[in-house]
Amino acid sequence: MNFKLKKLISLILSVIFVFSSAVCTIAQEGSTQAQNTPAITGDEAAAYINEAVAIIMTRYKFDVNKADLYKAALTEIIKNNPELLDSAFKGMFDGLDDYSFYFTKEELDSFMGAMSAEVCGIGVLVTASDSGLIISRVYDNSPAKEAGLIQGDIITHASGVYLGGLDIDLAKQNVIGEENTPVTIIYSRNGVSTEVTLIRRKVAIDAGFYQIVEDGKIGYISLNEFNANACEFVEKALKEFDSKNIKDIIFDLRGNPGGGLNEFVDVASLFIPSGPAIHLEYKNPLRFTTLYAENKDEIPKYNLAVLINNASASASEAFSAAIQDTGVGIVIGETSFGKGTMQNLLPFKIGGGIKITEAEYLSPNGRKVNKIGVTPDVKAPDKISEYERADIEPMTYSRILKQGDTGKDVLAIEERLRLVGLFNFVPDEVFDYDTYIATLNFQKSSELYPYGVMDYTTQAKLDGMLKGIEVRSDTSYKKAVEIFKEGNWQDYKKDWSVTE
Length: 500
Hints:
Elements: H1 2-18, H2 42-59, H3 66-80, H4 85-94, E1 101-103, H5 105-114, E2 124-129, E3 132-138, H6 143-146, E4 154-158, E5 161-162, H7 168-173, E6 182-189, E7 192-199, E8 208-213, E9 218-223, H8 230-243, E10 248-252, H9 261-268, E11 275-282, E12 289-293, E13 303-308, H10 315-326, E14 329-333, E15 341-347, E16 353-362, E17 378-379, E18 384-386, H11 408-419, H12 433-445, H13 456-466, E19 470-472, H14 475-486
Helix pairs in contact: 1-2, 1-3, 1-4, 8-9, 9-10, 11-13
């Protein structure tokens, strides 16, 4: 409390003193008169306040509470300078966790607009980081795709604002906006920054994709986020897998930033047994809440390998932890992001509002995730390496490739089309319609003749585009396939029970 009040007073005084020419006084030992000093900086003003508080605490005869002194100063400042109310709120919430903050009226209007269907963007799925917004997915037919942005790029600036360290909701407000309006972003790729201006528009956002892989033996689901369409999408995938009697499923949550609590429970109910799915721990212990999964199957029928990385956050972490605790699958990859909290939005009558962390969530067995993350049962992080050294199928240039072709050379081009963000499926050595469309789009974007055939010129262009850049391997996916093929995935399960 004392620290936050001191920080808040410092912030407000900085504003007052930087923009005023007031004369200050400071007590000096042995002097009975105030000494006039020139206008001072905000930092100096804050130091004087702290010194004044220290003098009162050490020399004032009667008992006094330090927090009350700062509170009195704050009250007097706001009473005489009501225009500083936004600054006061900003300072107050700045001292809390990374996900609690104050919205001005303009910021709240923008945030609420982001929740509507009318807001447009550039067509990327992102995760917040200290460096900016990390792109985990570029959607088809989007401004970002047309500008050449790819997975792994980091949007460092948007609309002139540095995005590093910002809460994801605040950061995204600088990217989204009205349809057909421009937004200038700066993105970083392999340490090189590029500035580009894009025109915002509505982009069809899919829930993810699913696919039957490994000769029809394994089902694969990639879920972009836990949004309103997530459960319907996953149910559709499972229906397809059920028709093929597929029980082994790879559930890819790499780069999934989370989503809604109810959506998480709905998706979890498709896999874990009926019972606790998540616990919510509030400040008031009487509000402790448990949300339950309701699985229509008496015994869960799928074997899951959940893939996570350090960009898997929030609901995707809750899902991974629930899979571990209930024993219906294993988690593969690297330790997740570590956002295990729930926020609530509270608008103010006078305009503006706050987004505040109200609860910390626990796994079904009572494990904490916040600032810890979910530790995988099997550590198999995707490796980042130079393209020339990447663990991908080599190009052979042995033949022209077209629809209907199969083989390792098809795998090689699919892997590369995926690296440039044009092939959003698991490479499977089959030049099917999806490979044809990806090839066609690559030719269009590269100003080659667009006919969907991977001729030698197109292969060389694709290979050359990737030279000298860093790419991410698919280690965790390959590990999941290996484990399912061994037929003993249960041997990799760890004991995630919590003992008191």
